[in-house]
Each structure stands twice: as C-alpha cells, then as structure tokens.
Amino acid sequence: VAILMLSSHIKGLDSLRQLIEWLAASPPELRLVVDVVASWELTQQIGAFVQGAWAAEHGKTTEWAPWVTALTQLEEIIKRLELPNIGREIAKAKSIIYCEYLEDRDSARKAIENGELLFGSSTVLEEQRLNVLFQGSADEEVLARWQSIETRGGRLPPDPFAYRRVGISASRLGKHGRAAEIFLAGVEILPSIAFNETRTGLLVDAAFEYELDGQRRRAAQTLVVALEQLPAEAREEGGDRWEAIQRAAAEVVSTINSRRSGKPPRKSLSPGYASGPNLRMNTLTSGQLSRTGMLISAVVRLAASLGVRSQQLESRLTDYGDT
Q1: Helix, strand, coil fractions of the chain, as percent rounded to 5
Q2: Are 167 and 272 in contact (CB under 8 A)?
Q3: Of 64, 110, 144, 316, which alpha carbon lies 20 to 30 A from 103's?
Q4: pLDDT over threshold 70, residue 204
Q5: Residue 144 to residue 122: CA distance in whole angstroms
Q6: In Å, how far are 247, 252, 289, 293 from 316, measured between CA atoms?
C-alpha cells in the first residue's frame, strides 16, 4: 500500500526518471515488490506509476517527442533490471503518445510489438493494441480480438474504458445487443466505491443499445438500475459531468418514447456517449435536483408501462416533491 501511495507523487517525466533511478539503486527484492504492485488491477485502473506521469502532463504540453525518447531510454533500463510489468507500462505509454498525441498509429503498433519482444505479452499491451485499432476505426478486428480473449478464457483488461471502446466498435458494426453486454461487463469490473459517473454512463449507454437492438424492456430495466445506483452527488448543483450524464439518460428515455410512438427521435446519441470520459456541460444550468427528480419520474413511468417496477425509485420520488 505504501508503494502504491508513492506512485501518487509521480506526476511528470522528471519524477518518473527519479522512480527508475531509485529502483536501480534499490535491492532486487524491493524492485520485485514494486514490479508486482505495477501489475495489480487497482494500480492499472488508477493509472499509477507510468501512466500517471504522462497523464499529468497531457493538458500542459504539446511536445511529446522528448517523452518518446525518454521512455525508450527508460525501457532499456527496466529491461536490464528485469522488471517486466513496469516495462509493459512504459511500452503502453509510448504507444498511447504515438497514437493519441503524435497521430502515428504505425509507430504506436510497433511500440506494442517491441514491448512484447522485450517484456512478454500481457493484458496491458493487448488492451493498448485494441485501443490503437479502435482509434483507426478497425471495428471488426477490435471485436474479433476481444471475442478471442473471451473464448480462450484470457484475462480481460481491468480498464472500464477498454470495455467502452469495444462496445462502441460493436455498436458501429450494428451489433447493438453485444454492445450493451460489453458496456454492462465494464460496469461489473468497477469498484463499488468509485467511478460513479463512469458506472452510470455505461449503464445509460447499455440501455440505449438495448433499445436499438429491439430489447425495449431490457433498456428500461437497465435505466432503472442506473438510477437506483445514482449517488447523492448526482443531484447536487455544479456537477458538469453529472448534468451531462443525466441529460443523456433523459435523451435515451425520449428516444424510446419516440420510437414507441413511431416518431423519429429528437436526436441520435453516438455509441458510448454517456460514458465518455470528457463528457461535460459547457454551460451549467441551475435546477439539478429538479432535473434528477424529473428523470426518475420519466424512467419510472416508462418502466411501469413495460411491466418493470422499482419500489426504490417510486419511493425516492417523494424526495423531489411533485416532479
């Protein structure tokens, strides 16, 4: 735990270099412990160590070439120290920078292949390979590789956004029921005490995909689950992401009602819209408590019309007055 807490101080290239220098000067037993911690799912979910270093800089810098050079040098050091888990994280970071900041998917792919050559294959690198393919809209290959991992019983990535990307690929291929299942699988890997916005967003996205797949009752059931799990913070003023997610949920309800009546939906949400990590309201409007109540009321009415009841949501409506 102390080592994981140490990772919170790694917020840039200099601190990442200091970590590697410290590891090089440390006893082999301690280096091994750090490398094991780097392989934990929790470590990967919070982006500790390597990913936290570049993520802390992504909003501040446009000069990514020096990062690639430095990460390549650190890769060589980590190889000599025989720390494969940290090495794979460095290879992943290089690939992300190539793909998402330098727009060089060929180099991003080669960074993964080189990482596998140096440190062996892993879920970490396979997840990034899927990301590179997704960024290139290679949806069929994304879904095929994902299904291959599932079929052979391999370890799926611990990152909910990896599930989100694959779900989007499935949706773009017209496999809406499969997309819903993948979004829901992403919900299942989330810890119960964190990632509330991501959890709700994935549930809303799954509901939308079920509607597109013709499974309207499942769509309503999924919206009910999303709102039953809605935390108190979601109804507080000033939450730009929560307001955006709830507006997306309201749009899903509107879409379902429009399609039921044979009318064209008011607008069409893109796959994975509600769970987008960058989804925010550009301009906040007051009345979040009232909006939350109206959304719950709309979902309760929709669900009841499809034979789905939620005593929890129905009783919660009293908290919102007459909405």
Answers
A1: 70, 0, 30
A2: yes
A3: 144
A4: yes
A5: 17
A6: 19, 21, 12, 9
Three-class HEC string of 274-294: CCCCCCCCCCCCCCHHHHHHH
Confirm if 158 and 200 have CB atoms less than 8 A apart.
no
The total number of residues shown for the chain amounts to 323
Residue 3 has pLDDT above 70, yes or no: no
Computed on alpha carbons and rounded to an integer, the radius of gyration of the chain in Å comes to 22
Structure tokens at 310: 């939620």
Q: Which among 102, 31, 35, 30 has a CA at the least distance from the CA of 65?
A: 102
What pLDDT score does 8 carry? 63
SS3 175: coil
Per-residue pLDDT at 43 exceeds 80: no
pLDDT value at residue 1:
52
Taking the whole predicted model, whether its pTM rises above 0.85 is answered as yes
Q: What is the pLDDT of residue 48?
A: 64
Tokens, residue 218: 């499942």
